[in-house]
């Protein structure tokens, strides 16, 4: 049986709409109620994403993630005239609500890679376990060292 390698692309407006609705819903559950500041926070973040994607398409050399990071850092810094208002709006959006939606969608996207994982076979399990363990241990050592500097 041949595996289909057809790739399905979602329009940008659809994927951003779904992420925004799911994110606002998750943030509202975390905040125990929907508020206008949560919606405003998501509007600001979506605007940042759209501007960064547009700049990445114009430059064709720099990734959108570079623009998002750079612009986001600037507009949230004290040097930007509207930083206080922007930070107040975005602060109402719980970070875990954003991470929950993104990790859920990332997990669901792994379903398309199951045929590839079947080709790799059982060897991926010990490699994955070693990678996860090493990552955990290294982050623990770094955290202990960093926290030790404060005490």
TrEMBL record:
Q: What UniProt keywords are attached to this protein's entry?
A: Membrane, Transmembrane, Transmembrane helix
Top-level taxon of the source organism: Bacteria
Q: Which residues cross the membrane?
A: 12-30, 36-55, 62-81, 93-112, 124-150
**What protein name does the entry list?**
Uncharacterized protein
Q: Taxonomic lineage of this organism?
A: Bacteria, Bacillati, Actinomycetota, Actinomycetes, Micrococcales
């Amino acid at each position: 049986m041949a595996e289909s390698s057809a790739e399905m692309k979602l329009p940008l407006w659809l994927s951003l709409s779904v992420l925004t609705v799911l994110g606002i819903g998750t943030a509202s559950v975390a905040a125990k109620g929907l508020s206008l500041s949560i919606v405003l926070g998501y509007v600001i973040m979506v605007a940042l994403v759209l501007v960064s994607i547009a700049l990445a398409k114009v430059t064709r050399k720099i990734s959108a993630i570079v623009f998002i990071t750079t612009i986001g850092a600037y507009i949230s810094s004290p040097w930007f005239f509207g930083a206080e208002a922007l930070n107040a709006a975005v602060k109402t959006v719980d970070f875990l609500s954003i991470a929950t939606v993104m990790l859920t969608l990332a997990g669901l996207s792994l379903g398309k890679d199951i045929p590839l994982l079947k080709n790799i076979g059982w060897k991926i399990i010990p490699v994955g376990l070693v990678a996860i363990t090493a990552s955990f241990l290294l982050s623990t050592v770094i955290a202990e060292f960093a926290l030790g500097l404060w005490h």
